[in-house]
Amino acid sequence: MDKTFIFWGTDEFSVKILETLTKRELEPALIVTVPDKPQGRKNIIVPSPVKVWAQTKGIDILQPPSLRNPDFAEQLKAKGAAFFLVASYGKIIPTDILAIPPKGTLNIHPSLLPKYRGPSPLETAILNGETETGVTIMLVDEEMDHGPILANQKISLRDQYNFERLRNETAVIGANLFADILPDYLVGSLESKVQEHPAATYTKKFTREDGQLNLSATPTENYRKILALNPWPGAYFIDQHNNRQIKVKVKKAKLENGELIFERVIPEGRKEVSWADYLRGKR
User: Fold this and answer.
1) 231: cis peptide before it, omega within 30°?
2) How far apart are the first and last CA of the chain?
3) How far, in Å, CA of 117 to CA of 200, rounded?
4) Which of 55, 114, 139, 179 could form a disulfide with 200 if both were Cys (CB 3.0 to 4.6 A apart)?
5) Using one digit for the tens of pLDDT, what is the confidence trace for 177-192?
6) How far from the centroid of its chain's Cα atoms is residue 56's Cα?
7) How many CB atoms lie within 10 A of CB 42?
């Protein structure tokens, strides 16, 4: 049974999947990730988390600026992979590329498809106060998160789930689920199921402005935003401090007796401090 595969991914969700697959003795022959990008005020060029991980493992990497370059397609074909596995790559893959491996292209998506298609299923589930979410293994087609489902697994959500915790747990669950079904998939004994497309819902990419807390909203709504949108784009509010308005990022908070209590904040231009210390500095 040929388990040679090429992995497509970019962020920490992808890295957690790779770590888990490696423990299951599934290591990609090649990794495709996005080109290095400038970050921060100084525009320092930074590699993706997946590239950093691949370099520590000595795994070959491709970072194509364009997925439509014929040379890129030839590089993929040269690996002779049985299948591709995509997890949070961040770009739409052209149909002719998806069709290269004989066993097709699979995807690990952190929601119960067709619910929460798109780039931010975890954040959106937390924001919406979902009581459960999950992970779906699907076949990739030409539309976003649209292909037939091979398997899924539910996860019960509790009030204290923040984005990073949910990201890590869904990645581990998704990778293990993928490893469990792979033998049946490769021998053709695993049936796929067409998604219920009319029931599909969609998520969006968040902007910095999405992180602003509405202090007149309910404590629960603001708490969910703090849980969902850290580290990106970060939850914040505008406060009057020393006769000027500043942005205050909320790094940690809790709900107690129906009241939202800030615990750790980053005032604009300063390092992270406790909420109590921030208030003392206003006096």
Assistant:
1) yes
2) 69
3) 7
4) 114
5) 999 999 999 999 999 9
6) 21
7) 6
CB 163 within 8 A of CB 122: yes
Query: How many other β-carbons are positioned within 10 Å of the β-carbon of residue 171?
Result: 26
Scan for tokens 């231009």, then name that residue: 269
Domain residue limits, the chain: 5-199, 208-282
Q: How many CB atoms neighbour CB 65 within 10 A? A: 8
Picking from 149, 148, 166, the residue whose alpha carbon sits closest to that of residue 157 is 166
pLDDT, tens digit, 9 for 90 and up, residues 150-185: 999 999 997 778 999 999 999 999 999 999 999 999
**Confidence at residue 283, expressed as pLDDT on a 0 to 100 scale:** 63
Among 84, 47, 54, 50, which Cα is nearest to 67's? Answer: 84
Q: What is the pTM of this model?
A: 0.94
Architecture (CATH level 2) of domain 5-199: 3-Layer(aba) Sandwich (3.40)
Neighbours of 268 (CB within 10 A): 14
Identify the CATH class of 208-282.
Answer: alpha beta
- C-alpha 234/C-alpha 229 separation (Å) is 5
Common-topology check for domains 5-199 and 208-282: no
Strands (E), the chain: 5-9, 30-32, 37-39, 44-46, 61-62, 83-87, 105-109, 132-139, 149-156, 235-241, 244-256, 259-267, 273-274
The CA dihedral of 91, 176, 31, 85, to the nearest 10 degrees, is -50
> In sequence order, which residues have a C-beta less than 8 Å from that of residue 229 and are 6 or more positions away?
123, 127, 163, 206, 210, 211, 235
Tokens of 237: 């509010």
Is residue 166 within 8 Å of residue 159, measured between CB atoms?
no
Instruction: Give the separation between CA 211 and CA 234, rounded to whole angstroms.
Output: 5
